[in-house]
User: Fold this.
Amino acid sequence: MKEASENDRTDIAEKLSDLWIKSSEGNANPDWFQSYLAKYCNGNWEVITNDAMLEFGMIAFRNKLNKKQIDFIKISNRTLNYLHYYEDNNKVKNNKRSNLTYAFESDVVEDSKSDSLMLKATNGNIELEEALVVINQMKDLFGEGFEEAAIGNIEIMSTATGRGLSAKNDELVYCWKKLVEHSALQNDVKDNISDGTIKFASESQKAINDIQDAFTSPEENNHGFSIHNLKSYFKSALSDLDTACKDNDVDKKIKALTNIAKKLTEKDESLKEFVSDNKNRINKRSLYNEILLGIAELRGIKFRQQQEDHSKYLQYKGFSMISKGLSGTYIDNPGNLDSQTLNVLTNLVTEAYQNIRTEMTSKTNKVRKLVEELKKDKGFSPLLERTVGNSTNLYKNMIEYKNGDIYLKDPDDPKSGLSTAEKNFLRYFL
Assistant:
């Protein structure tokens, strides 16, 4: 492992220059790539590389100040959202198998798991997992002084389209473990990712790292505002965050991060607006959104890369009514929408829906089981159910009428006249 040499820097500069130019061609937000790299130019980061990374078009950025985060960029020349399908020996595509594990198992296996974090087999996601192959051998990055460092962001950036793609760290590690489970590493290569030797930062930890990075920058202007002028304004909030981190108290972290986010909006109310980022605000908005993602994660919301339901994502510009119709823009990764605020909302709404669906599925299964017990208790056969049976008869004995009102019977009252099945149903209902 080495710091980038002069020759390495020239090679890296050429690749980044190509990407920089391509990212500005016909892009609704031509400054996105410049703004993405800006965070690494504040004096806190160092560029790290080696032969393996350069061969795969990868660059590492290591925070040399807080020594807690290492980010990666992988340069690609492919269309990142192109989706691959499984092909059998006759080169026949199976459109029902498009997960990263499609060569080993049907998508049904993963899709049936409520806690699955499996990604689709797009070019971008395939390259993200390829990046992990290289990162798995990068133990030296966590050498003396960097023992507490963790992988922060891994971004694939395409010179073909001028766009980037990433996934959440828990998704990347989940897919890595599944792929290694199906196809073990060769030549006695140690799995440093699965065993935790190489660590990955959570969204909340990345948010905390970004805050510390912004407020310890040697540069006078960082993240879109003058840190030196605002440091005293954030002093109390930063102190609360340090205390929360030392105590490792989730509630305190949520409160401290919420306070910092509030103070950011007090200084720039445009952060609350649903507007496209511009050159002067994008870094501050990026920091603000990272804080929101960190708060959401601490509150129990998990995030997923969105690859389906394209028609639900309609952006105000950049869609073709003729080729796409009025249904939407067929966006494959909402993390790449022009509006970072829309990105955050998309992630939160998607995950909230998934959480509600998971919770309701669990409750539905329980209720279904209790109802089946009621049916057996009442002799309510499948034939009766499908013909003249009245399902309300299942519940009549659970209620009683008093003083012109309807009451549920007490399942713990021995004089209630309830059967065991009725008592179990009422206990769960109540």
